[in-house]
Amino acid sequence: MTVVLRRVNRVLLGLAGLILVLLGGSVLAAAAGLSVPSWWPWSGPSDVLLTTADRQRWRDEGWWWPVVIAVLGVIVLLALWWLIAQFRRARLSEVVVDSGDGEEANLRGRALEDVLEADTADQDGVARARFSLTGRRDAPRARVRLRLEPHASPGDVLTTLSSRTLAHARTATGLSSLPTEARLRAVKHRARRVA
Prior knowledge:
Blueprint: H1 2-31, H2 52-56, H3 64-87, E1 94-98, E2 104-108, H4 109-121, E3 126-135, E4 140-148, H5 154-173, E5 180-186
Parallel strand pairs: 4-5
Antiparallel strand pairs: 1-2, 3-4
Helix pairs in contact: 4-5
């Protein structure tokens, strides 16, 4: 489903971009005095997009400006929402697991994330772990944010994460690989007083 939405998103984005480039280019061509098709409404640099009559038609109506501002505000909010949605990574809802009998089983993505978080949080030096799975059902990718205790060694934590937690996850799900991006942060703590 997400692949279809991604394709539709790309097609709509491409069409919107093409329309805007063609319209903008043709208006710039007309404004620069270049030749434009005879059917084009603006054919020269002296033509305007909106005539004085068009601009002043609704000016005396009390509802006009609030409606224009509200519509433009809604368009801006929708555009910002769409832009932010482009940078969000969708979490994986399920992972395909080889059940060993030639069939496949579906494992909830959140369940696998919970197990990975619990296993990682049991490590020495890890105060908190947050996993999120992205990618495809048959080829998931993991992102983990780790909060490390002050005494933790980042190298040891990453080694244990790779050799224990991720190895268990690959074995349990039958995945050949589970690419993981780890972000480490230290827990804020007060400095100790030395007497």
